[in-house]
Predict the structure.
Amino acid sequence: MTNASPATEPLTPHGPAVYFDGTSSARNIVTIEAGAAGLKIMAANRHVLDEWCYAELRRQSAPDDMLRLGRSGETLLARLEVRDPALITAIEDRAVTLDRGGAAERRLRRKVVALSFAAGVSLFATAAFGVPALASRLIPFIPLSVEHKLGDAVDREIRASLDTQHLGTAFTCGNGLGEAAGRAALDKLVGELEAAAALPFALQVEVVRRAEPNAMALPGGRIYVNDGLIAQAQTPDELAGVLAHEIGHVARRDGTRTVLQTAGLSFLFGMMLGDFVGGGAVVIAARTVLKSSYSRSVETAADAYSVALMQKAGGDPHALGAILARIVSDREHGIKILLDHPETKDRIAAIDAVAVTGTTTPLLDADDWSALQQICSSQPAKGATTGAGQIK
Amino acid sequence: MTTADALNPAPSAGVVAFLGNEAAYWRLRIKGAALLVFTLGLYRFWFATDVRRFLWSNTEIGGETLEYTGLATELLGGFLLALAILVPLYTAFAVAALEFSPRAAVSIVFGLMLLAFGAEFALYRARRYRLTRTVFRGVRFDQHGSAWRYALFALLWWAVVAVTLGLAYPWAQASLQRFKMRHTSYGDLAGSFAGSGFDLFLRGVAIWLVVVAPLLIALVTLGALVDWDSLNTAMMQGDQATLTRIENGPGFHRAIGIAVIALGAAAFAAILLYPLFQAVTLRWWISGLRFGAVEVTSRLGAAQVYRVYVRFILFIVLLALCALAAAAVSLFAVTVLVGPRHDSALAELLATAITVGLYVVIALGASTIHQVVVTLALWRLGAQSAELAGAAALDCVRATGAPSSALGEGLADALGVGGI
């Protein structure tokens, strides 16, 4: 800091600076005076170019050793650049808006970080609770025709990946030589359940030539039952229990629900969160945990539906638990929060808790049941006892 | 220090310099990366703003530094605006894919083209945002011109580049840079681009030959020595006998061998020559920049860029060693903690969590190292190697223009194509 005339102005700090007036790039070397109310910007001939109040001063980004000043609320980009450390101190002493040491800026940043974190937690909670709730509310507004289209699309995928044409047999059973009786028995069993369920659309149940004891429901009313599952069932009611579980998925429109939930998750985690290098892993982990949780609650609801439907149809509601215990016993391992279905012992306990106990007559008589067991007889599935089932 | 020194720290008008200190940039980057994880990425708008402030305010041209005046809240607003446009668009696409599933492939191709178009559009508009937030000597930069036209133009050029296996890249770059610079100005000083495509082609054609020639050899060999028609038919019909016959044919093993060697050679050459490619294109680009009578030239040397990449590899090796050590320690810790209780589910959960955590740390670490060791170094080299002729023209530029919206930045962010 230089004192040009210490005798006349002993108390007003002043010194050199570079001034840009904002209308042109001309570099003006000026002297500024840090007065009581503001900065006085003077040309070399002591002519006053401008006067800036302390309250309107704003710190602009600059190299470490420079104080770069602008004025707030100004469309012109007039700038003052001060490099004299003593003068910088004098100006910072007088202008509180300059936030010496950056304390106000740091406070603001802490707030931003805290709010961003809170937003992340809130989005996560929305994904965990809001998305399933919203999906349930939205399902009634989605026309069944959309669900049928979705089902057709899924069906094409499944047939393309599971088709057995290259083995010389049809994908589904019941149409081959000596399979007609089995088909009739299946239709009878499905008819009883369908009558009890009173769905707004027709079911389409097919038995598939596959060995794993499994069954699946597609959106729109298609249900595929693996041949291997029938082989594992000891009574017609066990098969009926599984069918009722799958009908539960159809009735509750779980296919559409999954599509809506996945879309909601993709939106929350794909677009709002996780947009940084390595964030993909965090997003995938979070989505896996959440999707598994959605899937578990969907399976639990379908089990409850199965119990209710079996009771309505006059079958044994405990039979689902019995076949579950047989086909998935002690084959389970893995992380609970990553499982896409509840643990089998919990499922069986839940089924037994709500199912009424009493004597029931099987839904099919012995002749029909043995015919149904022969539904894929034109080429028996091999290795029917291997593989773990899930009943999804 | 005398008054004159304080006022004129770098008196020569044509000198470009970078004042930033690498340690400060390391601190900025590491802190930002940690906060990104903590906020699941929402901090990125503030992080990007800090990074730009650092880079801009440490870049000095003729003794005066650049200034970045953008605000993080503007970027956040731009991102929300982009979401408001993209979310209905994505929804419409999802519904369309469901409605017309037989033509899903067509809608996917159309969607990808629209995304590519959107990305180029966003890049151009984002450049406009950054330029209008760049202030030098109290006067801002500006960019005009239609982003729609630029995006169309860019897509056409990239199609030509793809068809010519990259041979058209120099002309595409020259043409796109001319478009950008023709619509760029500093105050009333109009920008232009003087680099010629042919010039870049001459400098880069050797690189292209060394990388692409082995690829062509591989393709030609595979085409000539393998009977593709019968292979295709056999695959379609699952005809194992024919497949075996083809696999045992005289040409097959030789063809596969030559193809593998050629592909390996191409990949090796590409990695080895990438720094040279960077040096050539960066020098060509800087040397083509013009503002009115101001001409920029660059003396950037390939050896300087190679040094940058050697240092990068050393840092990455260091990161890999640290990650290995961390993995070993955490594995040991999990075994000690969980081992006695034989709780395999808990162990698996911990192992998964540690894997995800390590992955995030490694990915963010590698990206941070790249940003500091490569991007900052290239920024510094680019600045220091540049020299301005006719810099006197910078003394009497009149201010024009106004700040533009941050929509382009938001779109670029939402589409994942953001730059600096």
About this structure: Residues 1-10 of chain B have pLDDT under 50 and may be disordered. The first strand of chain B starts at residue 16 and ends at 18. Chain B is about 70% helix and 10% strand. Residues 275 and 307 of chain B are 9 Å apart (CA to CA).
